[in-house]
Design brief:
single chain, 375 residues, alpha+beta, Immunoglobulin-like, 7-stranded mixed beta sheet, 5-stranded mixed beta sheet, 19% helix, 29% strand
Length: 375
């Protein structure tokens, strides 16, 4: 199913999912056998998120239950059918699906999360993730078990698909890491250094700043430039505790409490990205020496952190920048998440609220065409 065919009714269902949050749906399957198979909804490793069903195509016998595990911290849904206004936003794990109606998980992420579907009728059914336009697959349900996948075949093809997509992301990261740092001498004699937020494919994202660590002179400016569809933030200082994610301008909006950064306060770029409200550029001038760590709010648990070291003259110091201890810490994001993991639920809710349902949907369709080349 092409994501563009869902139209604006998808957003109404999505809004309901945010009300439910990322609560776990208890899996009903303890093992894989002929009638119970296990696949993955996305995966990743530090710095990389593969947004794909693993494997993308599955063939099962009628009556088989497939459980999708969510091993990585990037949130996904397992969704079938076109949502209808007023329909339940999510279906209980383990429920039957016969190819009709809307059938979907909540947004889920992280080890231990899973969602199961029992296929009660034959046919080929498209499956997709609501928030990742390139994340699509299919389940073909047949009468004869002899033509269906085994757990071994699912595992093998899922690993092949993952390795292929990860290799594409790693190649992009390698190319961006090899680029020299862009530096521009400004009129006052200080220098502006550019850090890129870059790297994505139709089925994945690079969650890294390029370069992740940079040395600058006192008074210099760092500019972060995003060239990705995926939204990211550049955030210094602890996220304000106790503030709700949904509808929270502290996530999406820019926070610049002064003319220069002096090592204190909450500084945030807002959600940066192509066609996102905060644009593609964010600059900070550094007015004190020291090592300053920053992070991306929705992807800190995936290792997206960086550091700026400011010295009197900008010379590369004899001692390396120590490994970042991001604020908040990577464990659970340190972001008051009720279920742990990154803060995508609130971030996307804010974006939808700012852009409106129709605007968000038009943006999502454009992004699918942009990252897939129109496929």
């Amino acid at each position: 199913m092409k994501v563009a065919g869902l139209a604006g009714t998808l957003v109404a269902a999505l809004a309901g999912m945010f009300v439910l949050g990322a609560s776990s749906l208890v899996p009903e399957i303890a093992r894989a056998d002929g009638e119970h198979l296990v696949a993955r909804a996305g995966d990743g490793q530090a710095g990389f998120a593969v947004n794909a069903f693993l494997p993308e195509q599955i063939t099962v016998a009628v009556g088989t239950t497939v459980r999708w595990d969510f091993p990585w911290w990037e949130p996904h849904t397992v969704t079938f059918g076109v949502p209808q206004v007023g329909a339940p936003p999510a279906t209980a794990s383990g429920s039957d699906y016969d190819g009709t109606g809307f059938h979907s998980s909540n947004l889920l992420f992280g080890p231990g999360e899973s969602y199961a579907v029992r296929f009660a009728a034959t046919g080929t059914f498209d499956v997709y993730c609501i928030i990742h336009p390139g994340m699509v697959g299919s389940v073909t349900v047949v009468e004869e078990p002899g033509t269906a996948d085994t757990q071994e075949s699912l595992d093998r093809r899922g690993l092949e698909d993952y390795d292929r997509e990860l290799a594409l992301l790693e190649a992009q990261a390698k190319a961006w890491a090899a680029r020299p740092i862009e530096r521009e001498v400004l009129g006052d004699g200080t220098t502006r250094h550019t850090v890129y937020i870059a790297g994505e494919t139709p089925k994945g994202d690079v969650q890294t700043f390029f370069p992740p660590f940079i040395e600058v002179a006192l008074g210099d400016t760092v500019r972060w430039r995003s060239v990705t569809v995926t939204g990211h933030t550049v955030t210094f200082g602890p996220f304000p505790e106790g503030i709700p994610r949904a509808g929270n301008p502290a996530v999406d909006n820019r926070s610049v409490p002064g003319e220069t950064y002096r090592g204190a306060g909450y500084w945030n770029s807002g959600m940066m990205g192509l066609d996102l409200p905060s644009g593609t550029n964010f600059e900070m001038q550094f007015g004190t020496t020291g090592s300053f760590y920053y992070y991306c709010i929705p992807h800190v648990d995936q290792g997206m952190t960086g550091a700026v070291r400011v010295t009197e003259d900008g010379a590369v110091p004899s001692t390396p920048i120590p490994a970042a201890t991001p604020l908040p810490p990577a464990t659970g994001g340190g972001l008051s998440e009720p279920a742990g993991g990154p803060a995508w639920l609130g971030v996307l809710a804010v974006v939808i609220g700012l852009m409106g349902a129709g605007g968000w949907w038009r943006w999502a369709v454009r992004q699918r065409g942009r990252v897939t080349g129109g496929r």
